[in-house]
Queue: 2 jobs
Job 1
Amino acid sequence: MTPGTRTHGAEQSDETRALLSNPLHGLSEPRQLAAVLGVPLPELWRLSRAVNNYFAFETQTGGKLRLVTAPRRRLEEIQGDVCHQLRRLGQPDYLHSGMRGRSNVTHAAGHQGQAWLCKIDLRSFYLQVTAAHVRRLFSHDMQCSASVAALLTRLCTTEGHLPIGGKVSQPLAFRVAKPMLDELASLAMAANIRFSCNVDDLCFSGEKATPSFLWRVKQVIHKCGFRYHDAKCYRPGQPRLVTGVLLTDAGTTLRGRDVLRIRQELSARFNADPCEKKLRSLQGRLAAASAIDSRYRPALDAVQARLKSLSAHGSIRGAPRNMLVQST
């Protein structure tokens, strides 16, 4: 949390009001949940017991293959409604995920110009949040009956944990980890250290965000039953990489290897037969890059136009070479 923001007491008061007025709070019977979600109760029971609610696929993130388990359409819609209600509970100032106008870029940029910077990731975050965690959240925090909590848990988890690829996973994971994150926010505030969280990435910066402070952070995470990895401290003056954003004395930018990869892919895609799958991968990479550096926006627009043409006509004519982003 940035020094000078409102106190946790004020936040808690706001959160209490939001909690008590939330449609999911205090549900005593499954039929009430069905009414809130606008779904017939028999359909909720059927989906909660189905064995084919998800499909799996691999995606590449940061050079690593990751298995994604995504809900099928009907369950995705229901999880989206639960997600919407959870996000109505309010979010603390330190959170930069699942919020309009906030992202990995705002998460990183908030630490620009600070002396020391420490970062640490929660390992396999969604897999660490088990069905038991989710059931307790709905029964204890949301004050739902045991039957409602059990039904919601079955609708929102798979194979005993949160799905990697479900809309509801981020707000549920955050709510389960919130007591720990609030404790870390208080620890940072007491030391006049900035703290922010983007999904599973925790970042601290300031004069006292040193290795000794990072050790205290690790102790809190361990005490709360979570595992961590990729803990690192940057000294004053060092370029630092935070959620894909490179922070330097000159501002925020992309890593050199990310720039090179984008330029290589742009050149290859616009000088070969179009492949929709690869173009969509490039589109995602350019969207992330343009959020950091606006020079990538024209290239993103060109790829999006080519995808639109591919969808409409089945083939795409080449884009001009001046669409290629030049590195500096």
Note: Residues 1-7, 316-328 have pLDDT under 50 and may be disordered.
Job 2
Amino acid sequence: MNEPPGTKTIAIVALVVVLTVGAAAGFLVLTSGEEADQSILSVPDTSASAITSPPPSMEGINTHTQVYGTGADPNIITLGPKVGGCPGCPPYHDKTSMEFELDHGTPVLSPIDMVLVGFTNRNANYRVQADGQKQTPYNDLELCFKSASSDWPGMAICTYHLLSSPLLLGHNQDPDCGEVEEWQGTTQAQGHIFFSVDDYVISEKGNAGSCDALIGHTVKRGEVIGFAGSVGTHSMASFRFKVSHTLENPTVQNGGRYLHWVQPGSFFYWECYTPNADLPSGVLAYPFECGGYRLPAEQHDISFKYTSEKVTIVDLTRGSKS
């Protein structure tokens, strides 16, 4: 069997289909598997990263580090640098993301070409923390994607603390898909979702169909995927990345054992997106307008929605196109 460079083939033996009913959570988790060969992809040598090499030129690279918020918990990082994000900003336990400190309602852009594979809606009018602090609003819509770029094969990307998204046609349009009064955790979910030590495919929770998510829709680098939300007075968009590698991730309990959480601010190289920019291989586009690039005016409206015309079919149990 001919394999592309940087791949390893392993045999995975599992049940044909295992259905586990999450009774307490109120949703159906689908775990699919069969005896098959599965290619485990590594980071291509040509993709700039902390574990390969820098881009050929650093001109225009990493120019907006002042926007970096708190990084991920070093103890959850299993590939590349352990530390990243805002210096002197301690993360909470098992934090997998880094915030980009953006104004409320700022358009959030796709850092690479990628496919929407799942979402969770945790938006609420307010949340009361354990210490009694009340945070209003509590925007916590999350979108999860799989890479459609050959620079980052197999990579998972999630962004959360979003106010809204054009990829959820029913969000804030259908009365059954919006926000609850008090935060309750995940009120609606569908598709492939990634957690700190697990990832699952969720059939549907909480009438998620009312959100009319464009599961399988491909977004190109630089396209709007959502709008930055707020937790109290703190506005942001949080990003987390799981990178595919031939090394096994010892922290994974269920799901992709060859996917690794990385520090977004120190693992990747970043550059402002412009339509004519030729970003070096592996470099991600900053997920906000910069470098003179501006979206069309209508895409600054938090009610902006895509159409459902161009949708790529995706096998959610494998996260691959079919």
Note: Confidence is low (pLDDT under 50) at residues 1-26, 32-38, 312-322.
